[in-house]
Amino acid sequence: MHMFLTYVVVTFVVTLRQAMLISCDSQKRHDKSCENGVCFREEDQGPCKPVDDEPRLFRWDPIKIGHTRELKLETGRKFKMITLASKPPLFEIPDFLRGSECKHIINLANSVGLRGSDLHLDKDLDQRKEFLRGHASGRAGDFANWDKNRDGSIRRDEVIEFAESYKFLYLDPMEVDDMIIKLNLTEFDDDYVTLQEFSTLPTAAMDEYMNDIKEKHPAHRERFSQQAWLLQGKTADDVLKRLRKRVAKLTRLSDRIVRGGEPLQVVKYEANGHYNAHYDSQYQANMSHVKCCHLDLSLLPNCRVCRYATILYYLNDVEDGGETAFPVVDKPKFDKKAYIESMSEDKFNLMQYCYDGNLVVAPKRGKAILWYNHFVDEETGWMGEMDEYALHGGCGLWSGVKWIANNWITSADARWAHYKSDHDV
């Protein structure tokens, strides 16, 4: 009798446990958050293993600003991950890189060779502009657009105002003087231009000169820096291989996805170095039929950029400036089109408006910041539409040198998810 009761109890416990497991498996199959790789049991537990064993995308829950996690990413080392923003999820990881690793990456970039984006004004600018006499056909050809204070004359400070109002170009007085000399604007000989003198003022040449400055001058162009690319695959050295493993544990993404990421981009900024506000990735809407660039490099530039997440490393301490700005993070509502149309100033210009945004991150050697450029598609678990809150850029560097590195984690939407990345070598 005793043995029979023992058998019944054991059988009941085993059956109950099996039923609970079946229930758990069933829940996993129908819980989209779990299928997407986000564990629904404990927010810090990390990704669940999908039922079909396919690697899906994981996206850390920000919880709230200031929330701190302790992560074990390497044997004997613990790392803190601090939430800086919720839209998009944005995290800071202090001391993610050792000082020796930062120095090693800088040395590798120098040995590979840095390529500059520092285009300068054409040396033959004077000669080219000499052919542009007469008035511009647009706003620059209207005296009233220059005469801001309506006193019947145009002074140097009004040239600065014109450039700012109509071109989002922020000239200083020395740059205005330089333009007057280069274009031989004799109308400014007595420091102002009257309405009568305006008839001979070559505003077409001035207009194109300003366009050239905005496009090519280091302080005014969209971006001013130097870059190098370091391979992180099988041919990489031990430091980069170890860093990639650390990244995989930080992001909780599969080896296949992390291996498919782009080479490490190392960037050097010097005086006036900056990168105006931009997105690291591209919209999926109306482009889902186009293959992601990392899946087939031969398609460049006729493909779309699919950078699911960005990990930015600060490789040195900076003397002055060089912050990373996130102008619109955590805004209650944000519509990019409306944001642009409502601008009376170029808020994308981080030489001028670095501190006007919602969040500014100061560089510090070894620190990393992680954010997501895309949502996760709830139906498939793969990459969804781009998150417009991920607008960011590098503020102006006022002194010293700034070194950073960008580690882009690429992915694809469900349609292209099973293609192997060309970077996975």
Report on the architecture of this protein:
With 425 residues, the protein is an alpha+beta fold. Helices cover 29% and strands 21% of the residues. It has twelve helices and 20 strands. A nine-stranded antiparallel sheet has the order 1-2-3-15-11-20-9-8-4. It has a five-stranded antiparallel sheet with strand order 7-10-18-13-14, with no helix packed on it. Strands 5-6 form a two-stranded antiparallel ribbon. The longest helix has 29 residues, at 2-30. It is elongated, with a radius of gyration of 28 Å. The model is unreliable at 1-42 and 118-133 (pLDDT under 50).
Descriptive tags:
disordered N terminus, alpha+beta, 9-stranded antiparallel beta sheet, 5-stranded antiparallel beta sheet, 425 residues, 29% helix, single chain, 12 helices
Assembly type of the chains comes to single chain
User: What characterizes the major β-sheet?
Assistant: 9 strands, antiparallel
Number of strands: 20
Strand arrangement, largest sheet?
1-2-3-15-11-20-9-8-4
- Judged by helices, strands and strand pairing, the structural class is alpha+beta
Which percent bin holds the helix content?
Answer: 25-40%
Number of helices: 12
First-to-last CA distance: 66 Å
Overall mean confidence score, pLDDT: 85
Instruction: Report low-confidence residues grouped into runs of 5 or more.
Output: 1-42, 118-133
CA radius of gyration is 28 Å
Strand content: 15-25%
What overall geometry do the principal axes of the alpha carbons give?
Answer: elongated
